[in-house]
TrEMBL record:
Classification of source organism: Eukaryota, Fungi, Dikarya, Ascomycota, Pezizomycotina
Signal peptide (from-to): none
Annotated organism of origin: Gomphillus americanus
Residues covered by the NAD(P)-binding domain: 7-107
Lineage: superkingdom: Eukaryota
Bilayer-crossing regions: none
Descriptive protein name: NAD(P)-binding domain-containing protein
SUPFAM superfamilies: NAD(P)-binding Rossmann-fold domains (SSF51735)
Gene Ontology terms, MF aspect: oxidoreductase activity, acting on the CH-NH group of donors, NAD or NADP as acceptor
InterPro entries named in the record: NAD(P)-bd_dom, NAD(P)-bd_dom_sf, Polyketide_Oxido-like
Length: 239
Protein backbone atom coordinates (compact mmCIF):
# COMPACT_ATOMS: atom_id res chain seq x y z
CA UNK A 1 0.00 0.00 0.00
CA UNK A 2 1.23 3.50 -0.82
CA UNK A 3 1.09 5.64 2.33
CA UNK A 4 1.61 9.39 2.72
CA UNK A 5 3.43 9.88 6.04
CA UNK A 6 3.58 13.24 7.80
CA UNK A 7 6.03 13.74 10.66
CA UNK A 8 8.62 11.19 9.56
CA UNK A 9 11.46 13.21 11.13
CA UNK A 10 9.88 13.03 14.60
CA UNK A 11 10.06 10.38 17.32
CA UNK A 12 6.78 8.68 16.41
CA UNK A 13 6.98 9.20 12.66
CA UNK A 14 10.49 7.80 12.31
CA UNK A 15 9.34 4.56 13.96
CA UNK A 16 6.23 4.45 11.78
CA UNK A 17 8.44 4.80 8.71
CA UNK A 18 10.51 1.84 9.89
CA UNK A 19 7.34 -0.20 10.50
CA UNK A 20 5.92 0.70 7.08
CA UNK A 21 9.06 -0.60 5.40
CA UNK A 22 9.11 -3.71 7.59
CA UNK A 23 5.53 -4.46 6.52
CA UNK A 24 6.37 -3.88 2.83
CA UNK A 25 4.31 -0.72 2.40
CA UNK A 26 5.55 2.07 0.14
CA UNK A 27 5.97 5.32 2.10
CA UNK A 28 5.76 8.80 0.60
CA UNK A 29 7.27 11.27 3.04
CA UNK A 30 5.66 14.70 3.42
CA UNK A 31 8.18 16.92 5.23
CA UNK A 32 8.76 20.60 5.84
CA UNK A 33 12.51 20.25 5.38
CA UNK A 34 13.98 17.18 3.64
CA UNK A 35 17.44 17.97 5.01
CA UNK A 36 16.21 16.86 8.45
CA UNK A 37 15.73 13.31 7.22
CA UNK A 38 18.50 10.90 8.26
CA UNK A 39 21.04 10.14 5.54
CA UNK A 40 20.09 6.45 5.49
CA UNK A 41 16.51 7.45 4.62
CA UNK A 42 17.62 9.81 1.85
CA UNK A 43 19.80 7.14 0.28
CA UNK A 44 17.35 4.25 0.66
CA UNK A 45 14.22 5.95 -0.68
CA UNK A 46 13.80 7.39 -4.18
CA UNK A 47 13.81 11.19 -4.26
CA UNK A 48 10.39 11.09 -5.90
CA UNK A 49 8.95 9.68 -2.65
CA UNK A 50 9.89 12.80 -0.66
CA UNK A 51 7.49 15.76 -0.84
CA UNK A 52 8.27 19.14 0.73
CA UNK A 53 5.36 21.09 2.16
CA UNK A 54 3.62 22.62 5.16
CA UNK A 55 1.73 20.13 7.33
CA UNK A 56 -1.07 22.66 7.85
CA UNK A 57 -1.60 23.21 4.10
CA UNK A 58 -4.55 21.01 3.18
CA UNK A 59 -4.31 21.77 -0.55
CA UNK A 60 -0.66 20.72 -0.68
CA UNK A 61 -1.41 17.54 1.29
CA UNK A 62 -4.31 16.67 -1.01
CA UNK A 63 -2.07 17.23 -4.03
CA UNK A 64 0.57 14.90 -2.57
CA UNK A 65 -2.03 12.18 -1.98
CA UNK A 66 -3.36 12.55 -5.52
CA UNK A 67 -0.09 12.84 -7.42
CA UNK A 68 1.49 9.87 -5.63
CA UNK A 69 -1.70 7.79 -5.79
CA UNK A 70 -1.61 7.13 -2.04
CA UNK A 71 -4.27 4.83 -0.60
CA UNK A 72 -3.62 5.82 3.00
CA UNK A 73 -2.34 8.71 5.12
CA UNK A 74 -0.63 8.57 8.51
CA UNK A 75 -0.17 11.84 10.37
CA UNK A 76 2.47 11.76 13.10
CA UNK A 77 3.08 15.51 12.92
CA UNK A 78 2.60 17.79 15.91
CA UNK A 79 2.43 17.13 19.66
CA UNK A 80 -0.68 15.35 20.95
CA UNK A 81 0.10 14.91 24.64
CA UNK A 82 -2.46 14.28 27.38
CA UNK A 83 -2.11 17.64 29.06
CA UNK A 84 -0.21 19.71 26.49
CA UNK A 85 0.09 20.18 22.78
CA UNK A 86 1.68 22.48 20.26
CA UNK A 87 -0.41 25.37 19.00
CA UNK A 88 -0.02 23.97 15.50
CA UNK A 89 -1.46 20.56 16.30
CA UNK A 90 -5.18 21.30 15.69
CA UNK A 91 -4.29 23.05 12.42
CA UNK A 92 -2.33 20.03 11.21
CA UNK A 93 -5.09 17.66 12.29
CA UNK A 94 -7.73 19.65 10.40
CA UNK A 95 -5.57 20.05 7.29
CA UNK A 96 -4.83 16.33 7.01
CA UNK A 97 -8.43 15.26 7.62
CA UNK A 98 -9.84 17.77 5.14
CA UNK A 99 -7.19 16.92 2.53
CA UNK A 100 -7.97 13.21 2.82
CA UNK A 101 -11.71 13.92 2.59
CA UNK A 102 -11.20 16.01 -0.56
CA UNK A 103 -9.32 13.18 -2.27
CA UNK A 104 -11.71 10.52 -1.01
CA UNK A 105 -14.66 12.44 -2.39
CA UNK A 106 -13.01 12.92 -5.79
CA UNK A 107 -12.08 9.22 -6.02
CA UNK A 108 -15.45 8.00 -4.86
CA UNK A 109 -13.89 5.79 -2.17
CA UNK A 110 -12.52 6.57 1.29
CA UNK A 111 -8.88 7.26 2.10
CA UNK A 112 -7.58 5.13 5.00
CA UNK A 113 -6.29 7.62 7.54
CA UNK A 114 -4.46 7.20 10.86
CA UNK A 115 -4.07 10.28 13.08
CA UNK A 116 -2.40 11.04 16.41
CA UNK A 117 -4.93 12.12 18.98
CA UNK A 118 -3.59 11.99 22.52
CA UNK A 119 -4.74 9.77 25.40
CA UNK A 120 -7.18 12.44 26.56
CA UNK A 121 -9.33 11.91 23.46
CA UNK A 122 -10.53 8.56 24.81
CA UNK A 123 -13.61 8.31 27.01
CA UNK A 124 -11.90 9.71 30.09
CA UNK A 125 -11.47 13.36 31.15
CA UNK A 126 -8.98 15.12 28.88
CA UNK A 127 -8.48 17.53 26.02
CA UNK A 128 -8.25 17.39 22.19
CA UNK A 129 -12.01 16.86 22.00
CA UNK A 130 -12.37 19.45 19.22
CA UNK A 131 -10.33 17.25 16.90
CA UNK A 132 -12.61 14.29 17.60
CA UNK A 133 -15.67 16.42 16.97
CA UNK A 134 -14.19 17.59 13.67
CA UNK A 135 -13.38 14.14 12.33
CA UNK A 136 -16.86 12.86 13.20
CA UNK A 137 -18.31 15.35 10.70
CA UNK A 138 -16.37 13.78 7.79
CA UNK A 139 -18.52 11.45 5.64
CA UNK A 140 -17.54 7.78 5.99
CA UNK A 141 -17.35 7.39 2.21
CA UNK A 142 -14.55 9.98 2.09
CA UNK A 143 -12.25 9.08 5.01
CA UNK A 144 -11.92 5.78 6.90
CA UNK A 145 -10.16 7.19 9.95
CA UNK A 146 -8.58 5.87 13.12
CA UNK A 147 -6.99 7.93 15.89
CA UNK A 148 -4.08 6.63 17.96
CA UNK A 149 -4.67 7.74 21.55
CA UNK A 150 -1.49 6.65 23.27
CA UNK A 151 -0.19 8.01 26.57
CA UNK A 152 3.55 8.29 27.23
CA UNK A 153 5.70 6.80 24.46
CA UNK A 154 9.44 6.29 24.94
CA UNK A 155 12.04 4.86 22.54
CA UNK A 156 13.17 1.29 23.06
CA UNK A 157 16.12 1.85 20.73
CA UNK A 158 17.56 4.45 18.39
CA UNK A 159 15.39 5.11 15.36
CA UNK A 160 16.53 3.41 12.17
CA UNK A 161 14.03 3.63 9.35
CA UNK A 162 15.95 1.16 7.24
CA UNK A 163 16.09 -1.60 9.89
CA UNK A 164 12.79 -3.13 8.68
CA UNK A 165 12.32 -4.89 12.01
CA UNK A 166 8.80 -5.76 13.16
CA UNK A 167 7.81 -5.40 16.80
CA UNK A 168 6.19 -8.54 18.22
CA UNK A 169 2.43 -8.07 17.85
CA UNK A 170 1.63 -9.97 21.06
CA UNK A 171 3.25 -7.18 23.08
CA UNK A 172 0.43 -4.72 22.32
CA UNK A 173 -3.24 -4.64 23.34
CA UNK A 174 -5.49 -2.20 21.48
CA UNK A 175 -9.14 -1.31 22.08
CA UNK A 176 -11.59 1.09 20.49
CA UNK A 177 -12.73 4.32 22.19
CA UNK A 178 -11.76 3.37 25.76
CA UNK A 179 -8.38 2.57 27.36
CA UNK A 180 -7.67 -1.18 27.34
CA UNK A 181 -7.74 -2.92 30.75
CA UNK A 182 -9.08 0.22 32.46
CA UNK A 183 -9.70 -0.33 36.18
CA UNK A 184 -12.68 1.67 37.41
CA UNK A 185 -12.01 0.98 41.07
CA UNK A 186 -12.97 4.47 42.29
CA UNK A 187 -16.31 4.94 40.51
CA UNK A 188 -18.05 4.85 43.89
CA UNK A 189 -16.32 8.06 45.08
CA UNK A 190 -18.74 11.02 44.71
CA UNK A 191 -17.63 13.86 42.38
CA UNK A 192 -13.98 12.82 42.16
CA UNK A 193 -14.23 9.13 41.31
CA UNK A 194 -13.50 9.52 37.59
CA UNK A 195 -10.48 11.73 38.25
CA UNK A 196 -9.11 9.31 40.85
CA UNK A 197 -9.39 6.52 38.29
CA UNK A 198 -7.30 8.51 35.85
CA UNK A 199 -4.48 9.00 38.36
CA UNK A 200 -4.67 5.37 39.50
CA UNK A 201 -4.43 3.98 35.97
CA UNK A 202 -2.51 6.46 33.85
CA UNK A 203 1.10 5.33 34.28
CA UNK A 204 0.20 1.80 33.19
CA UNK A 205 -0.37 3.12 29.67
CA UNK A 206 3.24 3.99 28.96
CA UNK A 207 4.37 2.19 25.80
CA UNK A 208 7.39 2.31 23.54
CA UNK A 209 7.43 4.31 20.33
CA UNK A 210 8.06 1.08 18.48
CA UNK A 211 4.94 -0.55 19.97
CA UNK A 212 2.81 2.45 19.01
CA UNK A 213 4.16 2.44 15.45
CA UNK A 214 3.60 -1.30 15.12
CA UNK A 215 0.01 -1.02 16.31
CA UNK A 216 -0.76 1.52 13.58
CA UNK A 217 0.98 -0.25 10.71
CA UNK A 218 -0.20 -3.72 11.72
CA UNK A 219 -3.76 -2.39 11.54
CA UNK A 220 -3.06 -0.71 8.20
CA UNK A 221 -2.26 -4.18 6.83
CA UNK A 222 -5.96 -5.03 7.27
CA UNK A 223 -7.04 -2.30 4.86
CA UNK A 224 -10.77 -1.61 4.95
CA UNK A 225 -11.35 -4.73 7.07
CA UNK A 226 -9.94 -3.06 10.18
CA UNK A 227 -12.14 -3.12 13.27
CA UNK A 228 -10.73 0.30 14.19
CA UNK A 229 -12.15 2.28 11.24
CA UNK A 230 -13.89 5.40 12.56
CA UNK A 231 -12.66 4.65 16.08
CA UNK A 232 -10.30 6.13 18.62
CA UNK A 233 -7.72 3.53 19.61
CA UNK A 234 -6.12 3.12 23.00
CA UNK A 235 -3.06 0.91 23.47
CA UNK A 236 -1.27 -0.72 26.38
CA UNK A 237 1.79 -2.95 26.64
CA UNK A 238 0.75 -6.54 27.27
CA UNK A 239 1.91 -8.05 30.56
Amino acid sequence: MKVLLLGSTGNVGSRILSALLAHSHTPVLYVRNASKLPQQVLTSLPSSSIVTGDASDRNAIAKAIQEHDCEAVISAAGLAGMFSRTEQFPKIFRAVVEAAATVGKSRGRPIRCWMLGGFGMLDIPGNHKENFELIQTIPENEVAWSILCAFQMTPAKEADATARTKTASDKIIATADVPPNWNARFTWVPLFGTLLNVFANIMGYATTLEQAAESVVRDLDKGMDSEFINKRVGIIAAK
